[in-house]
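Annex B, item 7. Sequence and structure tokens for protein A, then protein B.
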Amino acid sequence: MKKVIIYCVAIFTFGCTGDFGDVVDFTVVENPNLSESSVVGQPNSSSIWLSGLERQLALVFNETLVLSELGSDNYVNTQTFFSQFLDGLTIQITDPDMRDTQRQIQRLRELALFGIAEVGPGDPNYTAETEAEFYFFEGLSYLISGMYFSTLPQEPVGVPITSEQHYQNAITALDAAIAINAKPEYHLAKARANYYLGNKGAAIAAANAALALDADFDRFVLFDAANGPVSTFESALYGRATFDDLQPLPTLDFLDPKYSFLSTSEDAPVHYLKAEEAHLILAEANLSDNDIVAARGNLTDLLDLISTREVRNIDDSIEQRTQVSEGSRPDNASVVVNGRSGLVLDRQSGNVDVPSVSGTSLTASDIAAMQDDDAGLTLLYRTRQEVFIAEGLRFVDMGVKLVIDENEILLNPNINEGDPGTTPVIPAFISAVVADLDAITYDAGAGTASTAIDLSAILVANKSSNQVVPFE
């Protein structure tokens, strides 16, 4: 009924005059610098278009990172201007963040498809490498759709397709990129799609192919601090200073802020496809095959790789961990969290070292003692959380999915409220602990802190669910 009303209003408003069409027909006004012919058919237009795709990916991450990190147990939002809903997993079709996230992902897809169909073939200087990148970005648009939405259209006002089909379409596009000019990140993106599909053999093959091409590859998205887009999540973690309050769990304190000030012209990049993920996929596959020796080997390789990644020495003294109430959060290196030391930084005693690509509390001793059991798998998921903090994957590992936004529901004849994708997907075992996702207790006098729950253990305890722990 709502759709009928909207259509009727549109007809009444715009159909009651005979000449109103000329007012909204912008195709009759042509700026030679903005017309299609100024791009399609021009030399080097494909490389310029590719730069536009990189920029669009930055906009996608500006949407997905805030929602996914707040929706996970990584961070608690106490008084920021960033999403006021996701911290409690309140996911609504009327939330403008749903609209903006969906649109930015779909814009990435359409830009990639136009590059493949029009810009590239019309450029006399079109290269195979650029063509492969266009297919890569197409694959990314499907991969991200599958990660964050249970169903989503794959074309304007199209029929929504499931996350599983988005993953399959991502694999198809990535295979096209690999066939033209294979890169390790193409294989890793394919490994991730297969991982979340539960296709263990294909995920293993793709992860190994990625590492065979480059053992320490790292694909990242850049942000332009001077001209935009700036990094929204860097603003959330670092640029907020004392005005806002976004805090990590105490177990993750040593990894915060992952993004900090670089220069007046460049914000910190987001590392979204890196070799560490391949090792973690392989180790999880090893555990599902009851091969603890191989799992230990892959995790040892992971530690070796992380030891080579950049660690930034920064002044974070303005961040006092007060969470509005003085002394309410751990703020010095002597604090023991969940019985473990070394997880909290003392930001008032001078500069602190924070990993900017990957960091972990996992040690060689942990790996040596690891067994092929639920405790070992929990350790692996804790490591995944640490390595991928502020990269948006913990939310996906939780099995939570966002919703199609209200505008799409109202204007797309293939979607009605109540259809799959218009209600959030939150596994029952996540719903049961939403109030405790970010909850902690802290005794400043005793120097101890603890989290209310161990979400990694909860995920593993529910490994038989088809919503989480895909290899089990």
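Protein B:
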Amino acid sequence: MKLINDQSFNESFSYFDKEIVVEIIDIFLNEYEDRLTAIKKSIDELDFPNLKFHAHSLKGVVANFSAPAVQTLAKELEDKGTNSVNENLLENFTELDKLVRQMIDELNVLRENFV
């Protein structure tokens, strides 16, 4: 199952220079580990305000890449942070982590089209 909708992705970035698209992808590729680490730390510490913040941040960035399944999982964690719900946090994070890593593979392929 493909996570990134290529058509939406290309439409979203159609007005950008190729170098800008590569730069946007590279920024995410360089930051995603830190974003996931911050979410996991927030879950481990049951730090709901930070969970909300970091999940919301990831959700916003992922929206740029037209990956709705990843965005939905980030939103779910954001909502749990908002409402201080600790049910299934680790399971949700594990699934998010898996999908983000799959998205990274897809972004690397898309990136090659812009280089």
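Comment on protein B: Residues 18-44 form the longest helix (27 residues).
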